[in-house]
Structure formats: structure tokens, C-alpha cells
Fold this protein.
Amino acid sequence: MVTIVKGRDAQTQTVYRPGGKRHESSANDWVPTTCRMCLVGCAVLVQAKDGKVLNVIGNPDSPKNQGRMCAKGKSGIINHYNPNRVTKPLKRTNPEKGIGVDPKWQEISWEEAIETISSKMRKVCQEDPRKLYLQIWGGNEMRAWLGALGPAVGTPYIQTGVSPTCGKTIHSIQHIIAGGFHTEPDFAHCNYLIDCGTQMGVATREAFNRHVPECANARERGMKLVVVDPVGNNAAAKSDEWLPIRPGTDAAFGLGMLNVLLNELKIYDAEFLKHHTNAGYLVGFNGKFVRDATTKKPLLYDQSDATVKTYDDPTLKEPALEGEYRFQDQKAKPAFELLKARAAEYPAERVEEITSIPAETIRRIAREFGEAAEIGATVKIDGVDVPYRPVNVEWMRGPQGHTHAWHHSWALTLMNLVMGASGVVGSGHATDVGHNWPIKSWPEAGEDGMLQNRGSAGRGVGNLGAFPGRTVTRPGRWDLFELFPVARHTRTLVPEVFKEPGKYGIDHKIELLIHTSANYVMGGWGDTQAVVDWYKSIDLVVGFALEIHETHELDDIVLPMPTYLEENAFHGSHVDTGVGDAVAGDHVGFHHIQQAALKAPEGVRSPIEVLMEIYHRAGILDEIYLVINRSKGLKPPYLLEAGKRYTETEILDRHAKSLYGEDKGWDWFKENGVLVHERDAEERYPGRFTKARIPIYLENFIELREELQAVLREMELEWDLSDYEPMPTWRPCASFEQLRRGEIDAIGVSYKLPYAYGAHGNANPWINELCEKLPYSYAVLINAKLAQRKGIKDGDPIWLESPVKKVKSVARVTECVHPDVIGIAGNAGHWARGKPLSTGKGVNFNGLLPFDMGQFDVISSALEHCIPLKVYKA
Amino acid sequence: MANQSEAADKGTDQSERAPTQMVTVKVVMMGELKRWAGEREVEIELPEGSTIQMLAEKLGVMCGQTFAQNALTKKGAFQPHVAVFIDGVHMGELDSAQTILRGGKVELMLLPSYEGG
């Protein structure tokens, strides 16, 4: 079946619908909607009858997952029959809060719940909106409607994520190198993929169900997959080559690869570096750019006429990348020359000592990667010449989870940039970059010609990048955001600052916290007791709940909510960008929705309508409407009007028609589920179409360091700011040194399972069954050498002792983990009464994480995820 | 914040030197921006042909140091995370900072920055 979509430049578009069996198979039984069993948001078809869900299958209409599902998604069926489901508002009657303390819930009416919350909200909005804290993770409309409180009333505390690592560097870096948000390889053309601390293409990440077959197809046609990871995880199992790396040494690996490429083999994309980056900007003695005396613009040395010119001089032809030049009475070198010199500090033999990856392997992988990049090649896409660089280094969770997270991430990023492999055919791509339709949005140049603004696409996902950075001031926020001028978010610091708020000059108290059903206490920070202490200090904690997990055990009021099979949302897929759904590379654009396939139980109300009632009573609904109008891109005549009230479906209809036209309202999407549209060559491969330079040298970090030094001095705080430098370097995390000194037995690291998600997945009976049958899920991985040294045998009960917690687990002795490492799967080890099936199974990784100021990256605020462990038989 | 008459006076002085037409822009500052600026709404007169970039520079002078430090770059542009809407349309859909203002309303918002899961 083919559906025709109109509206794009008045041309007719054909919907991508390879399956098209839905309407033929069982009339109206199959409802197109979205899976919410993890962050991805795959398009699914739900078969329901008499109020019961019978089956969930992947929707072949959607490019997001192309009809495929994973174990997490399939298990969503049984979630719907959760005997521990909350269906009535609850009030805590036990004033004591703590780990394992029974809240002694009492059912209350919606009226009592809404009045209690709206009264408190009115009070804090009138007194000081900073007393309001929102935790809004979740792929549904609730995120937008809770998040709107920030711009509407002025609280800075909108915690949009859960994890203390996720997004700490990736989004900031994607912003400045591509104007994007996430990344994915152009699997259709990539020939050499290196996964560093991520399982891209095999077991995790955005659009996972599409990536898996794409990666498999790419491997079948010859793409090489190299996995660099301390754990021989699912990705390693599928790889051509697994390189077990010592945790916290990614920067050394990246710099070692750069050294081979730039200094030994001299493989790099000089044309790209000259004309699309700041590699040719001249750097003076102080590390800062040499600038034109009048315009203050950075200067380059043009070899074509041996003169110095500004970056935007129309006569600039051949900027020098190497050499030394005398100008303005000082010697200056192109930034690229300095990068080469930095890389030269990391010869393969030194990198072997740090990472434990053999020097000859580093040289071989670098050579293979460089040769596969095919520098200089182009291909025609829709008649347009586009560079062809079929190589990519993907990184994610691993490099981000360290005290030097920025440097690990940046070193790996530079491997792609020096190859010119970004946003072109075969390379890595940022998602959600260029759009010509339905809303125009392109990244733009700002100061010094550098990529600075993402365009309008970021309206729903924020636009915090690392350039030029924010002005450093004394903090006023619980998350010390003012002291992290390039960080995307710093919410992870809150429980740490709570220990000594006076030290940082915090002058207000959090009085009202509202959170979605994500499990923040288990997955959001480290040291659980420190987290619980902070929650206990808040006057009123309100949670939207499906079941009572560990975070809800600290709530004062619990509000029941629909399951994803009972819920509506206009954006089905992951992040609400206000544009369409995030794609990258050689893919069509698309938009799919989430709609209720089942009726919610009596007593469960639409969270959006509940929030609207709370906002109305608090006197802030009109301000919320204004934010919703802008953030969702609503247009006349579909704007929400002050003083009026709307149902949830009325709003969804206005959103749909604003983006796609009068004939594509909510009813059209309910019937069709998915809208697909073509994307131009420049939208698919925006790398060389973006009119902005991208950095290989972060000059702005020097000035930011100086600002930070001044403010910290005033505050009498001593932070090591040496990480604020323009080029990557490797510095050890604490556990690396502790291990070297023999003070600990191993470094604990986490790895993801493809069949369990976050801090709640394994409470599902089917997922639990998988975890119990697959021997590594609830046990921990220990290398055979370490096990022998400690006298541990396979299946032995063992103790894992971190500086903040000691837990019992079971040893799985294996060669599939680095000898220095204990591999911990997922984030399990529940204790909440409302999750009896999963109580006490597996290890709560986050609960083992040390949590003090020394554990945070001074640039990104990422929390160190190398756990110093003592390991012994129980 | 400088009062509106001062701003208007500056505009008048400028127009005396060159007979420039002026446009009036209503700026709405939402959430924290309102706290930093001290006011939710302000009317500003700008010479015809002025851009969003020029508006940012003017606000940087008018709205005080706290506003400038938090909402603007050191060179006086809106920070990338300040969402600018011109008569309801995101400036990224227009000509961004080079969009010419022809009166009407400019709304400034700090939309939540998404972090990841």
C-alpha cells in the first residue's frame, strides 16, 4: 500500500512503505504507535482486542526501525499486566524517608493531589521559581509539558536526562563540529567502523533496531568493525577485531592513532582542514590565535602569495597547515602544526603502556583506518559531488564516563575530523542537522567563522554547545552551572553541592520536585545515600508512576499514568525536535506518532491534562501555552490561545497541522501512523554544505580557564583546571593510579545488555527470565587471570567493595573482559517494594560510584565511572 | 536597566544626525531572562534596517551586566541556547542574527537543553 504525502514545495511525495500489509491483515485491529520500552522509540503495530493487548510487532512503514523489534520491545506486552501497577493517586503517610523505608501509601482523590501540587507550585512561582526542580526524562508529551515550566516561570532546574554520563560531551561536541545532537555512521557506505566504548550497530544507541541490520549488511559487504572496549560485549562478539583497552585511556588511544596518521603515515584530509576547519589559524606564543589588529579576526598564512590574511578574506587560497611564521613581532604556528606536535607525544609504545593495546596493533589499525578513508575521493549524490570518506570512529558512554571525559571524547573525535570524515558519504553523521522541510533549519557560523548556532532544529532540544562558551560567574544554582561554561548540563552535581551549599553560595531551597517515571535515584548519580539525603530535604516530591520503584519510594505524592500503550504523543521517535524525527545520512525523513492502542484503567488520567489543570490553578497556564506554541512550532490558526482550555487530542491535532498542513492532522496520523518524506542531497550529507568552520583547536578554552581561575580564586576554591586546554591530552583517572600502586584489585565498569534498559528494565517478567537464563546478566565478569590471582572460581559468590558501598555478586570467569576489570551488566540490584520480581538481583552499578567533587570532569561535569574495587570471595 | 526614554533619546540623537526611520520592537523575556533583565517586556526603538544582532547589542547595554553575562556572548551576540522568536517564528527559519527587524514582537526563551538518557 502506498500513501501519497503532499505539501513539500507543492510537490507530491511517495511514502516509503515496504511492508504495507497492515490494513490487509486484520482491518482495524492493528494500531500504529510507538514502543517506549527504551529511549529509542521504534514504530510498532499493536494488536488489541477487548481491552487486551495480543501482540506487538515492528511497523514496516517506518524508516526508524523498518519493521524490526528487540526483546525489550516485545516484552512490553507483559508490562501491561503488571500486578504492581499504580492506578490511583497516592499520598505518603510515613514522614520518614530513606532506603528501604516503607512510605505507607494512602490512596487519595485526584482533586486532593492536584490541589496540593498546584498550591505548592503557585507558592514557589510567586516566591522564587528556583525552588522548583523538574526531572522530565521520557519520550512523551509529558517531557514537553513539564519542561515548559523552565522558560515559562524561570526555574533553571530542568533535568531532561537521567544518566550522569549520557550526553555530557557528545551533544556539546556534535553541536560544534556539525550542528547536531547525536551520531550514527552512514552504514550504507562505511567501510571501516571503530566502536570505542559503545556498541553502535550491534546492541545499543539511537535507532538501534535499524542500525543492527544496517551494520550486518555493511559487514557482509566488507566493512571492518573494530571494537575498543574493556568488555568483550555483544559488539565485540560481532566485531572483526576486539581491542581490550584499559578503562579511562581512550584519549591515549586516540592520540596514539593521530600520531601514526599525522606524523608517521602523513594521512589526513588537507583540503578539508584548510578550508572547513580552524587548522590553519595561526597560534601565538600564549596559545591564542594571532588576530588582525583592526578586525580582531584570526589570521592564516596564505602560501599562494606568502601573506597573512583573515579567515574570511576572499583571496585566501592555500592556508598553511604546517611551519612557523613570524608576524606581529611573534612567532606563530598553524593550529594543525600544534596538533601534530601534541600527537607526537603519544608514540605507539607509550600508548601501549597506558592502554595495554600492543603498539603494533595501534599502528596497524591506524594504517587500515587511514587507507580506508580514501582521502580525496568524491561521489555524486543526486548530481552533486560529495566527499567520500567511508570511515568512522563512534564513541559514546565509555569515553564520557570519566573525570577527563572531554579529552577522551575530543581525541576520538579528532580522528574523524583529520580524515575529513564528518557529515559526508560513508562517514559518521550528526543526527538532526540540516532541514529544508518541514521547517528550515541549518547550522550557522558565528564568531571567528566557527560553527556556533544549530539553527531552529534545536528549539526542542536546546542549543548548548562548547563554542564560544558562557561567561563564568559565581554560581547561584545548585548544579553550579555557572562554573562549567561549556557543559551541556551539570545536574549531576546537585547531591554533591547539597552536602555543603554554603560553600558555593547557594541561597535558595528546592521545595517542589516533579519527576516522570524514570528511576533517577538508581540511575542518575552515584553513592545512593548522598542522593537520598538530597531528596529528603525537598518539601514536596511528586512522581508520575506506573509502579513504585526506588525513586517513587521517596515521593510524597504519586500520580498514576498511562502505559505507553495507553498514551498519545505527536513525536513518537525519541527527541521532540519540533521538526521531524532525527535521522542522518542516506535516509528518508519521517515522522511517526504514539497513540493509545488500549484504554487506560479507570482512574488513570492523561498526564498532559493533569498538568494543564495544575498550571491553571497555579495561574501559569497562559505562560505555558506561549512556550508550547514556540517550542512545538505551532502556527496560526493552531496556536494555543490564552484563557482557553484544550483537550490533549486537540493540542496534538494543532501540532500536526502546524507542521504538515491542514490535511495532516492528528486523525491522519492516527490512521497512517507514519509520514515519510525525501531529503535533498545537502540534507543527507550536510558536512560540506554547512557554511561554517569547525574546530580542531579549542582556543576559547584558554580564556574560559582564565575566567574560571579568577572566579574560583574569589570563592577560595581550588580546582585543577589543567584540562581547559585547546588540544586533547591523556590524564589518568584515580582508579588507574590506584591500580598501578596495587591499592585496588580491579576497576569496575558497566556495559549494556541489548535486552535490558536503564534502571527498570529487568523488573519485567520476560526480561527477568532472559537475565536469569543468560549467565552474565546478573553476575559480574572477571578475567581468568585476575580470578586465579584472587582464588575465585566460576560461579563463586564474591564481594565487590567500592569506597561507598559493598555488594555481593557471582563471579563469571571469562577471557571476555580486560584483566584489570570487573564487568557489570546494566544497572540492576533493585530494592523497592513495588518491584518484587527484580529485588536483589544483579548489581546496582551507580550505587557503587564514589561521589565527591574530585570525581567530576571539570569541563563537562561527567561523573567518573571507573570504580576502584576490592574483590574477594564471599 | 536604562529606561525607555533614555533609549529613545539615543535614537533621537542618531536620527538628528541622519534622517533615519525608526522601528519599535517589543521584546518579551521569558523565565530566567526576565529575572536577569529585571523586566518581562521592554519596547525598544531601533533604526530601520536593524538586525537581531543589533538588538542583542542594544539589550546588552540596556538590560545590565547579569543579563549580558548570561544571555549574550562576550562579543554581544545571543548565546546559542537563547531561542529567539520574531513574531512567533524562530530566527533560524529566517536569516538568524542577520534577520532585519520591521517592528513587531521578539520573544526570548531558554528552552530545556536535552541531555540524553
About this structure: Strands of chain B lie at 22-29, 41-47, 82-86, 89-90, 104-110. Residues 4-17 of chain B form the longest helix (14 residues).
